[in-house]
């Protein structure tokens, strides 16, 4: 019984780690701070984090393009604002 309990705890711990990773910004490594921006490549970022990256890349969202900090895909459109629950605004 004790071994099964330990295994269940390990499974729960892995799920918690996965959830934290899924809900964390890859730039600041904290849980997402709304609003969350979604790039055309489907990577998500906190708005302040992504705006800092846009400034660093010397780009403005009106006529510029930028690279996703994770996959380096070029994006020409301003990121979509995503509400909690997966709904796009």
TrEMBL record:
Q: Which SMART domains match?
A: RING
Question: What are the residue boundaries of the RING-type domain, all occurrences included?
Answer: 25-72
The molecular function terms in GO held by this entry are: ubiquitin protein ligase activity; zinc ion binding
A GO biological process of this protein is: protein monoubiquitination
Keyword terms: Metal-binding, Zinc, Zinc-finger
User: Short name of one Pfam family for this protein?
Assistant: zf-RING_UBOX
Is Secreted found in the keyword set? no
Name assigned to this protein: RING-type domain-containing protein
Q: What is the lineage of its organism?
A: Eukaryota, Metazoa, Chordata, Craniata, Vertebrata
